[in-house]
Amino acid sequence: MSEDLFEKIIDREIPADIVFENDELLAFRDINPQAPVHVLIIPKRKIRTLNDLDEDDAGLVGRMVLAAKEIAASEGIAEDGYRLNLNCNERAGQSVWHIHLHLLGGRKMDWPPG
Ligand code: 5GP
After folding, report:
1. Could you give the domains of the chain?
2. 95 lines ligand 1 (CB under 6 A)
3. Is there a contact between 41 and 21 (Cβ–Cβ < 8 Å)?
4. pTM of this structure
């Protein structure tokens, strides 16, 4: 039995609109999109927060960013621009305890963020 929401998506216990998958990563559309394109890129291995990453995870995090770059291109937002966002813990807005990279695009992004 999967223990967190994103593990349930990985295990196909709950449905998601999956846009990319390989042995290590899964990417799917956010259920409550904050932009016309809002995709979450996650590792299949459970890592609760960014604070749990260590040196051995450097390649994994790099490949999450590269996957986001490829998805941005396939979604047609690479040239206009897009934002990648990682939230760590509650004060930054993390609500699912399995790290996830937000890919947001398709509209003008405010800076600084709220
Ligand atoms: P966080 O707030 O932790 O950075 O981001 C969690 C994200 O997961 C939120 O943007 C939220 O909308 C999304 N989310 C929560 N539950 C589900 C779900 O069941 N399916 C999908 N596709 N996204 C979800």
Report:
1. 5-105 (3.30.428.10)
2. yes
3. no
4. 0.97
Q: How is residue 114 annotated by DSSP?
A: -
* Residue 94 beta carbon below 6 angstroms from any ligand 1 atom: yes
Tell me the pLDDT tens digit for each residue of 34-83: 999 999 999 999 999 999 999 999 999 999 999 999 999 999 999 999 99
Two tokens at 1?
């039995």
* Atom number of ligand 1 nearest to Cα 16: 22
Identify residue 1 by its one-letter amino acid code: M
The rounded Å distance from CA 30 to ligand 1 centre is 6
Contact of 43 with 64, CB cutoff 8 Å? yes
Tell me how crowded residue 67 is: count the other CB atoms within 10 A of its CB: 23
Ligand 1 atom with least separation from CA of 95: 3
Catalytic annotation on 100? yes
User: Chain centroid to CA 3: how far?
Assistant: 18
Distance (Å, rounded) from C-alpha 84 to C-alpha 80? Answer: 14
